[in-house]
Amino acid sequence: MINKKRTALFKELEKIEIQVEKAKKELLKNKETFKDLYEESPLPYQALDKNGYIIAVNKAWLDELGYSHREVIGKWFGDFLGSGYRDKFKKDFNRFKAAGEIRGVEFELVKKDETRIIVSFNGKIAYDEEGNFIQTHCIFENITKRKQMEDEITKSREDLKRLTAHIQSIREEERAFISGEIHDEIGQALAALRMDLYRLEKKIPKDQKELTDIVQPMKEVLDKTFLTTREIYASLSPTLLEHFTISEVIEDHMSKFQVRTGIKSEIDIEAEDIKLEKDRSIALFRIFQEALNNVERHVKATKIIVRLTERRNKLELIVKDNGKGITDEKVNDPKSYGLMGMNERTGFLGGKLSIKGVPGKGTTVTITIPLHVVA
Prior knowledge:
alpha+beta; Beta-Lactamase; five-stranded antiparallel β-sheet; five-stranded mixed β-sheet; 21% strand; elongated
């Protein structure tokens, strides 16, 4: 009886051993398959132990960095990083082990010839059946050219921003010069002509009604021309900004806009005591002017609402009308130079411009800028 049980037990043990051997062979086969996969991978692959030392790399890794297999295995991965990235690696590696995976983590690698490249890592942690750390598996992509292009684009944008600011500054100088000429030359000439015409009118005999009828329309045309000249002068050079706050100038401009256009205006100003640097005040005023010009020329509005508020160290200017409503195509039209100018000036101020239209219900222009100077 005992012998029969022993025989049965041995047979079970033999089956188990056969299964174990089969499992070992399968595991070995899987390891070989995995090895073939990462060896043939076009992307550089590496495996690290729990302390960040290199266990394995593939041919693509060696080809990318120019090292031999013997120069890499067993070395701390941080030794292949730029000096400024080693502390980052320690922190990111600890996060990697805690999270179990990484995506898009960037490092600077130093090749054997001392060339530096920027790479982006993706990886996962391998665990045993009990959930213990075995090693990391990572691949990386050389993104040096992409980063260089991004840096060039960023630099180009900064250069364009500075150029735009310079052009705007030149425009303001030209406007100031032209407005000065209008004020000093044309304005004075019109004032002198106006005085002479009034003196001439006083010398016309009362019985010369025909002459009086000629002079009266001339006076009206001259007075209208004089007022128009003053408006052009004020528009070209907002001298009020030298003596008043931006909120006061906006309020004054809105009252004149209502009189000139007949469009009903509603003004809500909470940020009455806000003071901006001269250049920033002028830039914001020009944006406001262009917004009103668009209302006057294009949207066929009968009412306009202007709000100026301060929230969280930011100044918000809203211009809302009840016109036909601007379309997305018009907002994004590269030929909409007025809108482009508004956007450029807002960018110069370090702010954001939003233009939204609802068909048949109007357009809302929102300008949000920081109160501090943005370098």
